[in-house]
Amino acid sequence: MNPLDGDGTYALPFAQLDRFLAKVVVGYPSRDDECAIVDRYGASDPVLRENVATVDDVAAWQREAHTVFLDVRVRDYIVDLVRATRSARYVEHGASPRAALALAALARARAYHDERPFVSPDDVRDLAPAVLRHRIAFDYRLAAEGADAEAVVREIIARVPAP
Predict the structure, then answer these.
(1) Is the pLDDT of residue 2 over 60?
(2) CA distance 35 to 29
(3) For domain 54-159, which CATH number applies: 1.10.1140.10, 1.10.8.80, 1.20.200.10, 3.30.470.20?
(4) What sign does the CA torsion over 138, 139, 140, 142 have?
(5) For the residues of 44-104, what is the DSSP string, one character each?
(6) Per-domain residue ranges for the chain?
(7) pTM to 2 decimals?
(8) pLDDT tens across 64-79, in order?
(9) How many CB atoms lie within 10 A of CB 18?
(10) CA-to-CA distance for 10 and 2, rounded, in angstroms?
């Protein structure tokens, strides 16, 4: 959702937001990166790559990522992180069990991408903000006290001990 222009759009209901795997926050690029963007795309049509991956490739990667080992202690860490969102300060509604499924799937995908046969607690901790930030409904105190939602998510993650 573009935070700068909401004309003609409506925020998604909380139950629908829960169906998105992750919410990635993309800030502005550095000056050098912005110059590279202008150089690459500002003068002519960019060269688009073809035949990068087929649908069958993607399906195979999904199957293979699902076989990445998830130790019971890491699984418990995932569940504890999600459950911690339900009792945190400023939180009206915490993340649902779907968040635990999403975090496990994303952590497996990351380990697979990194060519590791197992999920590490670092995978979970690093990916948790993207999985949790849009699945938490904050109460009125967050705005009333000028608190930062991202800081609350980071605090929840920091509170839960990793295995």
Answers:
(1) no
(2) 9
(3) 1.10.8.80
(4) negative
(5) SPPPPP--S--HHHHHHHHHHHHTSB--HHHHHHHHHHHHHGGGSTTEEE---HHHHHHHH
(6) 54-159
(7) 0.80
(8) 999 999 999 999 999 9
(9) 17
(10) 11
